[in-house]
């Protein structure tokens, strides 16, 4: 399609849809027109991809995830279809602007943070790597809450992302399945003496799929993201005569749970988990039957991956269907299940490990409960002779009246992986050590990755053009080619151009901050960015302590020559996470105080953007100079903003935690600012029990001064929260060791100040970060998942493997 053809089709489409001239269309109408037009264009490839998979009986992976955070899809679809320039030029000739039209799209916030965004990057990479793989999740009516600040406090508003419809999705009513809840189950013998379950008085919910195309990059592959919505089954409306009864159904897919690191124990959450797990498994089974193969080939054709433990019920659900509906024996079903399912762990935080009360599962899912009990019984029986009682019971699925979802996920799958080397080591040596002794071969590492298409090509066109010009375009298909850039590390011209690209991106963000927040920031200042969920372990508070320290230094030394800094925060706190919300209030009040203090010559500004999400990340990341990755070592499983920021030329200022350890190893110590305790040092401090934060408060004058600011009225409107936060650090012994790492953190920032003054030195460091970002492309991560866990090859004509006897 050339520019003229595009223009013609666009104008025609607009008139068909709205029956008036496109020039009078609203942004929303222009966006919708473009969206439908693009959908028409990939529809044949979408259909063809799925036909090919069926014809070739290709092995396919289904990625089960409670969350997907895809971001807006207009530009990513255009990019992947190779139409970005054509459409951008065509619109221009029609007097329209692609960037403006793109604002007509809502950003679907169907996830909390890293876990959901990772799932979206993986969808993009699976299709772009030419792999047959699809997502399976929930079509929440409301995404993650919209964050507002009122008097500096976080307020949560509903995010009605579907209110104007969604161009990309296709409702497939004819593919709906029924998911059963509640009631009770009896096991009756059939004529052959086989026990068959009979369900009584169940509540039947219709799961209706909405499919969204996942367009691969320049390869003609279009996979599927299937999100399920709960409805009353047709013909059963009479069973739901009241609003309340109907609400119970609607509720199942109404809200995304807004906690990312807290286990939420409500019945509704459990319903959600079973709902999309069961619907997904049922539709996969129906599909497999179309291939007309023996059940023993199932694991050769289907892989089911569970993103954290939220979809763990896939395991007993697959067992249930294979036995109860397809008549397989327990042993056959168990072999198939284990070979089909694999599991990723995303956190070692105890409070995030899912445990459901036995009663809850027994009541909501009686048949599934029976199967879990039996899996547990057989596990214990088989392992005691091999590992003894102590170890075996520590790995039990049912313990103290609770179902341990991680234990079920490990026992019922063939692979468990962590998301960065350090995280996987901690899983093997500590958190899941008993399981590691039992199943050493199941454990493996898959360091996270990010898609460079969204995070460089789409969000940073300036850098993309520079790279294309300097190193050619190979990096777009093979991100490791970015390493070629190293050859230009001392090339003044390239470094200067890099500087200009960054400055432009900073100007763009500064404009947003001016318009949306009324804060003026200087684009030549250091843009120091921390963007991630608000959580105590991520230590946004340490960042604040540094800001206060710097502020008081400048007040006392107004003529200092340190470079200007803009501290940029983006973070949502779980609505029930009181402490995190206090930190938000504190940051906002500190921002107010500093931004309005004329005596410091704008040497510091603090910008806390409202409603941080994928779209804002696309604006902030290309503008960042410093990437703050300052979690307590051992706590951040991987982090993924670290990778996006690095790829956009920000310098990482970090503890040795999560994937930042690997970033350090690739980029080299001269191009990163490392501070603080290592994981081993944290462990030692934990074991010795010698940490006394009050002692540090009393003996370290710098710490003393900054902490006093929290309670002596220096910061307006923080009386109560200032005291609470102070107490968490001094009275309750500073759980995340902020004060222990404080001095080295300040030191690291000083080094950054000095380096920034030498522009060429700084730009060289930025360049080295970009050049070393290739290994963190999700394309490589997905390649390793496919190769080592899912046993899949791109476009492979799948040859039937002989099933094991
Ligand atoms: C981790 O906290 C990681 C993402 C994706 C998060 C973060 O470090 O990058 O997963 N874990 O792997 C999470 O959300 C529920 O757990």
Automatic annotation (TrEMBL):
Co-factor requirement: pyridoxal 5'-phosphate
EC numbers for this chain: 2.4.1.1
Name of a matching Pfam family: Phosphorylase
GO terms of biological process kind: glycogen catabolic process
Protein's job: Allosteric enzyme that catalyzes the rate-limiting step in glycogen catabolism, the phosphorolytic cleavage of glycogen to produce glucose-1-phosphate, and plays a central role in maintaining cellular and organismal glucose homeostasis.
Family named by the database record: Belongs to the glycogen phosphorylase family.
Protein name (record): Alpha-1,4 glucan phosphorylase
